[in-house]
Amino acid sequence: MRRILILVPMLSLAAVGALVAWRPDLREAALRPLAAWLVPGPEDRVLRLYGEIDVREAYPAFNVSGRIAQLDKEEGDRVEAGEPIGQLEDDEFRAREAAARAALEAARARLAELEAGSRPQEVARARAEVARLEALVRHAGLEVDRLERLVLSRAAPQAELDAARSRRDALLAELEAARQTLSLFEEGPRREQLAAQRAEVARAEAELAAATKQLADTRLVSRVRGAITGRLQEPGNVVLAQTPIYAIALETPVFARVWAPEPALGWLREGLAAEIVTDSGARVPARIGYISPVAEFTPKTVQTEELRTSLVYEVRVYADSPNDLRQGMPVTVEILRPAREPAGR
What we know:
Blueprint: H1 2-22, H2 27-38, E1 46-58, E2 66-71, E3 78-79, E4 84-88, H3 91-116, H4 120-152, H5 158-187, H6 191-216, E5 219-221, E6 226-231, E7 238-239, E8 246-261, E9 273-278, E10 283-295, H7 305-308, E11 312-319, E12 330-336
Antiparallel strand pairs: 1-8, 1-12, 2-4, 2-7, 3-6, 4-5, 6-8, 8-11, 9-10, 9-12, 10-11
Helix pairs in contact: 3-6, 4-5
């Protein structure tokens, strides 16, 4: 059997040689397929894979809940990164910001008052109050001394002396309170009061920042560049935070999602050059960017050789200049298999 397998190609070569010798005009036509069989050309090394164009999508949404006031884009419109594309009703958010700003101003004013300490007029008034009460206490003390002498001589009743003593003791209490007030004015606020008020100012600043951020979030701004493929809400709708408003197809990257047979995985590599061919004949340079590590379906536990070669793997081929490619467009991807180096090199 082995001899027969060896003789078949030898007889074929002999037949081709005899035909060329008999008909020289057929030499080129007869030798062309033989040369292609012995030395495969570039066309024989082209792997063609089939699939469609795919793009990544973004779904912008408001960060706060509210009623939609306006939407600036329609399906098919282009959008740039940083471009405003929608607005919520913001009256309530503006009122919250104004209230937070007023609270912050009041807290800052109170802190400034504590840091400045007592005014000179307040200290002077407290000292004058202490001096007035000291004079009243001295007069009350003299009155008590006079009545004590009169009571000893039985010239005044005891009740009058008791009343004078009560007035003196009350004045002494008022004097002590006035002295404490003067001490507070002279020393100024305690460190604990200052620390508490500074914390109040920080809290008011945080509340204002949050209110300002929420007001800014009533404006929807695109963070990507691409085309509007879906307008998912309309003005007047009440939406919760993080509810998608648009669907945006990103301008880049654009890639062809195709499927490669299992035998091709022996030489397919990320970064390998390729071409995306459309039905209109446009050819777009591209490169392989991703090869799936798993098959598209779950194989059986035991596989024959034929079944193993029928498995396919997802391959993403990224276009270098995707201007002529649209999402969902059917395409063919052509990949030139690298030529094998001669044996022994």
